[in-house]
Amino acid sequence: MGVYEALQIIVPSAIFFAAPLIFTALGGVFSERSGVVNIGLEGLMVIGAFTSVVFNLTFADRFGELTPWLALLVAMVVGAVFSLLHAVASITFRADQVVSGVAINFLAVGLSLFLVKKMYGKGQTDQIQVGFDKIDIPVLSHIPVIGPLFFANGYIPSYIAIALAFVVWYILFKTPFGLRLRAVGEHPMAADTMGINVTKMRYIAVMISGALGGIGGAVYATIISRDFSHATISGHGFMALAAMIFGKWHPLGAMGAALFFGVAQSLSIVGQAIPFLKNVPTVYLLIAPYVLTILALAGFIGRADAPKALGTPYVKGKR
Amino acid sequence: MSSNRVTNFLVPVFAVLLGMIAGSIVMLVSGYDPIAGYSALVYGAFGDSYYIGETIRQATPYILAGLAVAFAFRTGLFNIGVEGQLIVGWLAAVWVGVSFDLPKIIHLPLAILAAAAAGALWAFIPGFLKARFKVHEVIITIMMNYIALHVSNAVIRSVLSDKGFKSAKVHASASLQSEFLQSITDYSTLHYGIIVALIGAVVMWFLLEKTTKGYELRAVGFNQHASQYAGMNVPRNIILAMVISGAFAGVAGAMEGLGTFGNISVKAGFTGVGFDGIAVALLGSNNAFGIILSAFLFGALKVGALEMPSSADVPTELVDIVIALIIFFVASSYLIRLLLSRFQKEGK
């Protein structure tokens, strides 16, 4: 097996695994750039996965091919609403943002499993029947060598995820809204003095992170797991958090990191089929994303600085 | 100041009450009978000697995990990596438990110390990175959790078993299990670990409140700059605080490895005990005595929940919802304090 054949296995599956991480990590970028730590990404993904699977199972007959798209939309809305809890606790009630995020994670798992048992009488839903179609991107997939690797036979949400990273970059760095959002995360008092409503900006940012986290979970459930149980989302939210930090709180960096983690994840699964990786114990591939994040944070891979006001509630008039 | 102390006591009590009320609303809305649900919960936690034994057994690792989280909190750190430190502690305890043949008086303490050392080592890394590179410990400890999970699974598969899914049982000389405790509780899984956990609580109280080092650790947590100005070695104290916290977490793992299970199996996901430890510590106001109380409360909730599906048809996850809401309410104590101060003003 040559390198190109190996890449043909690794690259598409890396993109496949990376898509949910990209969505969620972009959500994390919004929240943390506004100064609100969001450990709750994991819980938001759980809620998104749960919502999309339940919606898909319930309405697949009525909406047919449209179902997964509508499920994505519903998961987005539910994720945004659910993240309001985090926003209220950490922005209005000045709760410790990490603690509130932990509570979000607990609540998401508890609530969704409670409802699964209530609705289906068992701890796991059935498999969904309607998923996304695989497509070849017109034109791009005909480019020799890289076309078949990157642009053929992929799921549409994966491509949306990558495109979205550029959109988020534009919003954060090229629009007044993005400037305000970043200002609130760096120096809320200065932002407030300039007439920016700190509380409002932070609420918006957290809800966007909830919406994107919901989509991330929904994409994972619809494409990868295809059902919902307690183990559907196990650490993917935290991996998205790691991707966001590894990407230095920058949308494109977060996307790159998520793609890279996707490679690690896909290697730990398809690695057995690839000759020169067969002898690497899977444990190294499993821990690679986490070890790399630690190294990145410790400054071995360039310096990663968090937004200055990250984790501190803004109290008007307090210096 | 007395009213402040009363408020500190009332906040957790109110949080639990609000959590339980919210839980009953959830039950009502989803068509269950809250009275039947909570009766089943109480029966399943304290109904007879078997259930009491199980509740105490569940509280054992909760006390230690709560102490680990609280020790870090008191020294200005957030150790969200108790889960990972607990897993490596569990692994180390079982490893020592199956590898040596020693008299009990040496073997058992050795296994527990090994667990403490493993947990301490796992916590040393985030402590060191925080002290040396100013990296936030929350992210590092989360990453360390996953590394602990995957590495310990790999060790169980390759070292502690022959590509199997669990290790052998620890030797009797390293076991905390007790036929006496089992027989008086109608053969529950109660073991001597509860004594270790209570000793742990006393150790934490003594260390933090009665020693110079404890004062230093708290001072560094409170204000690094002032501590440094007063001549304290800030980086060393950060590392030490993290290491002690990790040691408590490791011992919590030993309770599972030497007591409850007697071995270690490959895990698909986290045990949850370390994360519940965050709830225990918060509710216990990071105070050794408060942690014992809140560990028993959470132990009772978790064990009692198992009775809910059969007697009241309520899914066990209801308790997870209640616990999550309790954390929310404790975390948002600003809200509860605000309400309490309103009431006090009206009283006057």
Automatic annotation (TrEMBL), chain A:
TM stretches of this protein: 6-29, 36-57, 69-91, 98-116, 154-173, 203-222, 283-301
Keyword Transport part of the UniProt annotation: yes
Locations listed in the record: Cell membrane
GO function terms (MF aspect): transmembrane transporter activity
GO CC terms in record: plasma membrane
Pfam families named among the record's database cross-references: BPD_transp_2
Main location: membrane
Keywords, alphabetical: Cell membrane, Membrane, Sugar transport, Transmembrane, Transmembrane helix, Transport
Membrane topology, record value: Multi-pass membrane protein
Superkingdom: Bacteria
Cited PANTHER family: GUANOSINE ABC TRANSPORTER PERMEASE PROTEIN NUPQ (PTHR43370:SF1), SUGAR ABC TRANSPORTER INTEGRAL MEMBRANE PROTEIN-RELATED (PTHR43370)
The protein, known as: Simple sugar transport system permease protein
From TrEMBL, chain B:
GO molecular function, one term: transmembrane transporter activity
Keywords, alphabetical: Cell membrane, Membrane, Sugar transport, Transmembrane, Transmembrane helix, Transport
Topology relative to the membrane: Multi-pass membrane protein
A cellular-component GO term for this protein: plasma membrane
UniProt subcellular location: Cell membrane
Main subcellular location: membrane
Transmembrane is among the record's keywords: yes
InterPro entries documented for this protein: ABC_transp_permease
Keyword Membrane: yes
Transmembrane regions listed in the UniProt entry: 9-29, 86-103, 110-129, 135-156, 190-208, 238-261, 273-301, 321-340
Protein name per its UniProtKB record: Simple sugar transport system permease protein
Source organism of this protein record: Anoxybacteroides voinovskiense
